[in-house]
Write a structure and sequence with these properties.
- The protein is α+β, with helices and mostly antiparallel strands and 177 residues long.
- It contains 3 helices and 10 strands.
- The strands form 3 sheets. The chain has a 4-stranded antiparallel β-sheet, covered by helices on one side. The chain has a 4-stranded antiparallel β-sheet with strand order 2-7-6-5, covered by helices on one side. The protein has a two-stranded antiparallel ribbon with strand order 4-8.
- The structure holds adenosine-2'-monophosphate (2AM).
- Adenosine-2'-monophosphate binds next to strand 3.
Protein backbone atom coordinates (compact mmCIF):
# COMPACT_ATOMS: atom_id res chain seq x y z
CA UNK A 1 0.00 0.00 0.00
CA UNK A 2 1.17 3.52 -0.74
CA UNK A 3 0.12 6.95 0.46
CA UNK A 4 -1.05 8.67 -2.73
CA UNK A 5 -2.62 11.87 -3.98
CA UNK A 6 -3.44 13.53 -7.31
CA UNK A 7 -2.04 17.02 -7.85
CA UNK A 8 -1.56 19.64 -10.53
CA UNK A 9 2.13 19.89 -11.41
CA UNK A 10 4.01 23.16 -11.13
CA UNK A 11 6.84 23.64 -13.61
CA UNK A 12 10.40 24.39 -12.43
CA UNK A 13 10.19 28.07 -13.42
CA UNK A 14 7.01 28.59 -11.39
CA UNK A 15 8.45 26.69 -8.42
CA UNK A 16 11.45 29.00 -8.56
CA UNK A 17 9.19 32.07 -8.82
CA UNK A 18 7.28 30.98 -5.71
CA UNK A 19 10.37 30.25 -3.61
CA UNK A 20 12.00 33.52 -4.70
CA UNK A 21 8.84 35.47 -3.81
CA UNK A 22 8.73 33.65 -0.45
CA UNK A 23 12.36 34.53 0.29
CA UNK A 24 11.89 38.16 -0.69
CA UNK A 25 8.55 38.83 1.02
CA UNK A 26 8.26 36.51 4.01
CA UNK A 27 10.52 35.70 6.89
CA UNK A 28 8.78 33.22 9.16
CA UNK A 29 10.04 30.81 11.78
CA UNK A 30 7.71 28.23 10.21
CA UNK A 31 8.91 25.33 8.03
CA UNK A 32 9.16 26.22 4.32
CA UNK A 33 7.90 23.57 1.87
CA UNK A 34 10.79 22.40 -0.32
CA UNK A 35 10.66 23.87 -3.83
CA UNK A 36 10.43 20.43 -5.47
CA UNK A 37 7.44 19.56 -3.25
CA UNK A 38 5.28 22.53 -4.30
CA UNK A 39 2.03 21.43 -5.97
CA UNK A 40 -1.73 21.95 -6.03
CA UNK A 41 -3.54 18.92 -4.60
CA UNK A 42 -6.54 17.77 -6.67
CA UNK A 43 -7.58 14.79 -4.53
CA UNK A 44 -5.92 13.33 -1.46
CA UNK A 45 -6.29 9.54 -1.47
CA UNK A 46 -4.39 8.31 1.60
CA UNK A 47 -3.31 4.65 1.75
CA UNK A 48 -4.13 2.93 -1.56
CA UNK A 49 -3.91 -0.75 -2.53
CA UNK A 50 -1.90 -1.62 -5.69
CA UNK A 51 -5.10 -2.78 -7.48
CA UNK A 52 -6.84 0.51 -6.66
CA UNK A 53 -3.80 2.43 -7.92
CA UNK A 54 -3.85 0.45 -11.17
CA UNK A 55 -7.56 1.14 -11.71
CA UNK A 56 -7.10 4.87 -11.05
CA UNK A 57 -4.22 5.03 -13.52
CA UNK A 58 -6.19 3.18 -16.19
CA UNK A 59 -9.10 5.56 -15.67
CA UNK A 60 -6.80 8.57 -16.22
CA UNK A 61 -5.20 6.91 -19.26
CA UNK A 62 -8.64 6.60 -20.84
CA UNK A 63 -9.75 10.11 -19.94
CA UNK A 64 -6.53 11.93 -20.81
CA UNK A 65 -5.21 10.15 -23.88
CA UNK A 66 -3.62 12.72 -26.21
CA UNK A 67 -6.22 13.60 -28.88
CA UNK A 68 -4.54 15.58 -31.62
CA UNK A 69 -7.90 16.58 -33.10
CA UNK A 70 -8.81 18.46 -29.92
CA UNK A 71 -6.17 21.06 -29.18
CA UNK A 72 -6.04 22.05 -25.55
CA UNK A 73 -4.35 25.04 -24.05
CA UNK A 74 -2.45 25.34 -20.82
CA UNK A 75 -4.24 26.84 -17.81
CA UNK A 76 -3.21 30.12 -16.21
CA UNK A 77 -3.43 30.37 -12.45
CA UNK A 78 -3.40 33.80 -10.92
CA UNK A 79 -2.27 33.38 -7.29
CA UNK A 80 -3.38 36.55 -5.57
CA UNK A 81 -4.02 35.42 -2.00
CA UNK A 82 -1.79 34.54 0.89
CA UNK A 83 -3.81 32.82 3.60
CA UNK A 84 -3.58 30.48 6.57
CA UNK A 85 -5.33 27.21 7.36
CA UNK A 86 -5.31 27.87 11.11
CA UNK A 87 -5.98 24.31 12.30
CA UNK A 88 -3.49 22.70 9.88
CA UNK A 89 -1.02 25.60 10.46
CA UNK A 90 -0.44 25.72 6.69
CA UNK A 91 0.36 29.04 5.05
CA UNK A 92 -0.76 28.88 1.44
CA UNK A 93 -1.12 30.70 -1.85
CA UNK A 94 -4.63 30.75 -3.22
CA UNK A 95 -6.37 32.24 -6.20
CA UNK A 96 -9.74 33.90 -6.50
CA UNK A 97 -10.58 32.71 -10.01
CA UNK A 98 -9.45 29.13 -10.27
CA UNK A 99 -10.15 27.64 -13.76
CA UNK A 100 -13.46 25.73 -13.73
CA UNK A 101 -12.11 22.77 -15.79
CA UNK A 102 -9.52 22.16 -13.06
CA UNK A 103 -12.21 22.18 -10.37
CA UNK A 104 -14.09 19.65 -12.53
CA UNK A 105 -10.93 17.56 -12.77
CA UNK A 106 -10.62 17.51 -8.97
CA UNK A 107 -14.27 16.41 -8.69
CA UNK A 108 -13.84 13.72 -11.34
CA UNK A 109 -10.78 12.21 -9.61
CA UNK A 110 -12.43 12.38 -6.23
CA UNK A 111 -15.57 10.63 -7.56
CA UNK A 112 -13.43 7.95 -9.13
CA UNK A 113 -11.67 7.41 -5.78
CA UNK A 114 -15.05 7.09 -4.01
CA UNK A 115 -16.14 4.45 -6.56
CA UNK A 116 -13.11 2.41 -5.52
CA UNK A 117 -14.01 2.72 -1.84
CA UNK A 118 -11.43 5.41 -1.07
CA UNK A 119 -12.86 7.84 1.47
CA UNK A 120 -12.91 11.48 0.39
CA UNK A 121 -13.35 14.54 2.59
CA UNK A 122 -16.82 16.01 2.27
CA UNK A 123 -15.64 19.63 2.60
CA UNK A 124 -15.55 21.80 -0.52
CA UNK A 125 -12.45 21.64 -2.73
CA UNK A 126 -10.12 24.51 -1.92
CA UNK A 127 -7.23 24.67 -4.42
CA UNK A 128 -4.05 25.99 -2.82
CA UNK A 129 -0.27 25.77 -2.72
CA UNK A 130 1.07 25.23 0.78
CA UNK A 131 4.32 27.19 1.12
CA UNK A 132 4.94 26.93 4.89
CA UNK A 133 3.99 24.31 7.46
CA UNK A 134 3.82 24.91 11.24
CA UNK A 135 2.80 28.52 10.56
CA UNK A 136 1.10 30.19 13.51
CA UNK A 137 -0.15 33.41 11.96
CA UNK A 138 -0.61 35.27 8.72
CA UNK A 139 2.19 37.76 8.02
CA UNK A 140 1.20 41.45 7.77
CA UNK A 141 2.49 41.87 4.24
CA UNK A 142 0.11 39.28 2.84
CA UNK A 143 -0.28 40.63 -0.70
CA UNK A 144 0.89 38.56 -3.63
CA UNK A 145 0.48 38.36 -7.38
CA UNK A 146 1.97 35.30 -9.05
CA UNK A 147 0.94 34.05 -12.49
CA UNK A 148 1.51 30.34 -12.87
CA UNK A 149 1.02 27.93 -15.77
CA UNK A 150 -0.48 24.45 -15.50
CA UNK A 151 0.15 21.85 -18.20
CA UNK A 152 -0.36 18.54 -16.45
CA UNK A 153 -1.33 16.62 -13.36
CA UNK A 154 0.21 13.56 -11.72
CA UNK A 155 -0.47 10.75 -9.32
CA UNK A 156 2.04 11.31 -6.49
CA UNK A 157 3.48 8.97 -3.90
CA UNK A 158 3.99 10.75 -0.59
CA UNK A 159 7.07 9.06 0.83
CA UNK A 160 8.73 9.64 4.20
CA UNK A 161 12.51 9.89 3.98
CA UNK A 162 15.18 10.82 6.56
CA UNK A 163 15.25 14.26 4.85
CA UNK A 164 11.51 14.75 5.24
CA UNK A 165 8.59 13.92 3.03
CA UNK A 166 9.18 13.49 -0.69
CA UNK A 167 6.46 13.65 -3.36
CA UNK A 168 7.31 11.28 -6.20
CA UNK A 169 5.26 11.48 -9.42
CA UNK A 170 4.24 7.94 -10.42
CA UNK A 171 2.50 8.93 -13.66
CA UNK A 172 1.75 12.25 -15.36
CA UNK A 173 -1.12 13.15 -17.70
CA UNK A 174 -0.91 16.14 -20.00
CA UNK A 175 -3.71 18.68 -20.13
CA UNK A 176 -2.12 20.27 -23.21
CA UNK A 177 -1.42 19.02 -26.74
P1 LIG B 1 -1.60 20.54 2.03
O1 LIG B 1 -0.78 21.03 0.92
O2 LIG B 1 -2.70 21.47 2.39
O3 LIG B 1 -0.84 20.06 3.21
C1 LIG B 1 0.06 15.30 0.39
O4 LIG B 1 -0.12 15.03 1.74
C2 LIG B 1 -0.84 16.42 -0.06
O5 LIG B 1 -2.20 16.08 0.13
C3 LIG B 1 -0.60 17.72 0.68
O6 LIG B 1 -0.46 18.73 -0.29
C4 LIG B 1 -1.84 17.96 1.48
O7 LIG B 1 -2.35 19.24 1.46
C5 LIG B 1 -2.89 17.15 0.77
N1 LIG B 1 -3.91 16.67 1.68
C6 LIG B 1 -5.23 16.91 1.60
N2 LIG B 1 -5.90 16.29 2.57
C7 LIG B 1 -4.98 15.65 3.32
C8 LIG B 1 -5.05 14.85 4.49
N3 LIG B 1 -6.21 14.55 5.07
N4 LIG B 1 -3.90 14.38 5.00
C9 LIG B 1 -2.71 14.68 4.41
N5 LIG B 1 -2.59 15.42 3.30
C10 LIG B 1 -3.71 15.90 2.76
Amino acid sequence: MKRLFFALDLNDTDKHTITLWREQHLSLTAKPVKSENLHITLAFLGMVEPEQQQTLMEFCDQQFLPQTSQPKKHFNIDCNQLALFKKAKALYLGCQHFPKPLIKLATLLSQQAIELGIIQESRQYHPHITIYRKAKSLPDNSKCQLDLTINSFSLYHSKSTPDGVSYIPLKTWSLVQ
